[in-house]
Amino acid sequence: MPNKQKKISPQKMPHKFLWANILLIFILLLSATPKVESQVFANINLSRDKVYVQEPFRVTITVYTKTWFTAPVEFGNLQIPNAFIIPFDDTQPGMFTIGGKQYPGIQFYYIVFPYKAGNFTVPAFEVTAQSPPEGSSTSRKIVIKTPPQSFEVKDVPEKLKAKGAWFVAKGVSIRENWSHDLQTLKVGDVLKRTITIDAKGTLPQFIPAVTDQTEVKWASTYPQDPILTDTRAGGDANGRSVQTITYLLEKAGNYTIPEINLSFWNPYSSKINTQSLKEEKIHVADNPDLGILTTLKDSLDATVSKTGKAEETHGPLRILGMPWYYFAAIVIGILLLVYILIRFSIKGYRILSARRKKYLASEAYKFRQFIHSGDNNKDFLNALYAWWDSLKYRPSASVSDSLIETNNAQDAYIVESFMDQSLNSQIVADKVKDVKRVMEKYRKENDDRDLDEDKGVNEEQKIKSI
C-alpha cells in the first residue's frame, strides 16, 4: 500500500515555521503598499546600475515634504569606494508626483566615475531638513537616510583592450597649434607643439596622453606633463587636457610628423569613435652653426619638463539652486518690501488710532453708550450725564430745565419724575425706556442747532486766525 502523507494542522505546525510565515507575509505587505509616514522623506536614484570602468552615472537624491521647507536642505557627503565623485550644487526645487499625489521637493545630484571593476554599493545617504508637520506652522529639524543602492562596474571588454588606452566620453575634439611656421624650419630650431583635447562627459584625469605618438627619429622630443582643467558646465562633467611637446630639430631633410589618433568609447552609442590630427610633411634645412645644438639641448633638459596641475573652473556660488547674486537680489527685494509694509502699517495704525480716540470722545459714541446702558442706577445715570455734557447745545445744565426751555414740558415731567424715583428706589425698566426715548427725541430735534453751533465756532476760529 502506498504510504499516506500526514497533514500538519496549523495547531501542530512547529512554532519556527509559523513565525517565519507570519514574518514573510508582513514583509510582503509592507513592500506591496509603501506609505509615507513622515512629513519629510527622500529617495535615491541611479541613472545606471551597470556601467563600464570610467563610464559615469548619475546619483540623484530627491527630498520631499508634505508641507514646505523652512530652511535650505543639508546634504551629507557621498562616499563610494574606487570612484571619483563630482557633486553638483545646483539644487532643483519643484513639484513631484508620488502615488498620484504631488509633493514639493528638492533634487540634488552627483556624477560618479568608477575606476575599478567589481560590485559596489552607494551607501545610505544622510539628509537634514526643516519642515513643519501638516496642520502646524512650527518647523521641526528632521534627519533621514536614503536606502543603499547596489551597482556593477564591468571591466574593459577584451576586444577593446587591443585598441590601446581605454577612454570613455560622449564627445571629443582635438586641435593643435605650432610655435613656428612649418615651411621655414632649419636644424637647431626649437619647435613647440600644443595639443588641446576637450572631452565631454568625463573628467580631465581620464583623458589619455598622446605624447607617445609624437616621438620622431630626426628630432629630440621633450613632452611636458599635461595641464588638466575641469570645465564642467550645466549638469555635466567636462574636461580639458593641454599637452605640449617641444622638438629640437637635429637633422636636415624631408620628414613626416606622424598622425595622432585618439579613440574613445561612447557609452550612449555603444561605439568606438576616433578623433585624429593629420600628419604633416616638413622640410628641415641645413644650418652651418651646429654648435648651438648642444647648448639648446642642455637648456631644454633643464627647463622643459614641468608638472601640469589640474585647474577647476566652477560657476558662481549657488544658494537654493540659483546664483548667489540672484538670491541676494531677491533677499534685498523682500527686505525692502517688508520695510515698506512696516512703514505703511505704522502710519495706518496711527491714523486709525487717532480716529478711534476721536470717536471715543465724540457725542455720537457717548449717546450710543447711553442708549445701550443697563438698568442699574449708577451706570445709567453716568451714561446719561456723560452724553449730556458732550452736547454742544444745552440751554441748561439740568436736563429737565433744558427740556422745558425747548417747549418739551411733558418730556421734562417724564425725566423729572424718573430723577425723583431714582433717588429712592431701583429704576423701573419702563421708566428707563421712556427716558431713553425722550433723550433720543431731544437729540434729533437739536441736530440742526448743533450744526449751527459748529459753524459758529469755525467762523470764530477763522476770524481769530485773521
Commentary on this structure:
- With 466 residues, this protein is an alpha+beta fold.
- The protein has 10 helices and 23 strands.
- It has helices at residues 15-32, 158-161, 292-303, 324-360, 363-371, 377-390, 399-405, 409-424, 429-445, 447-465, and strands spanning 40-46, 50-52, 57-65, 74-75, 83-98, 101-114, 118-122, 125-131, 140-146, 149-154, 171-178, 185-186, 190-200, 219-223, 227-230, 238-249, 253-257, 260-266, 271-277, 280-285, 311-312, 318-319, 322-323.
- The strands form 7 sheets. Strands 11, 13, 14, 15, 16 and 21 form a 6-stranded mixed sheet that branches.
- A hairpin with a 7-residue loop joins strand 15 and strand 16 (238-249).
- The longest helix has 37 residues, at 324-360.
- The chain is elongated and about 145 Å long.
- The N and C termini lie far apart (137 Å).
- Residues 1-13, 29-37, 305-314 and 459-466 have low confidence and may be disordered.
Strand runs, count? 23
Content of β-strand? 25-35%
Q: Name the shape in a single word.
A: elongated
- Provide a count of the helices: 10
Please state the structural category: alpha+beta
What is the CA-CA span between the terminal residues? 137 Å
- Which oligomeric state applies? single chain
- Percentage of residues assigned to helices: 25-40%
Overall pLDDT level = 77
Major β-sheet profile: 6 strands, mixed
Radius of gyration: 47 Å
Low-confidence stretches: 1-13, 29-37, 305-314, 459-466
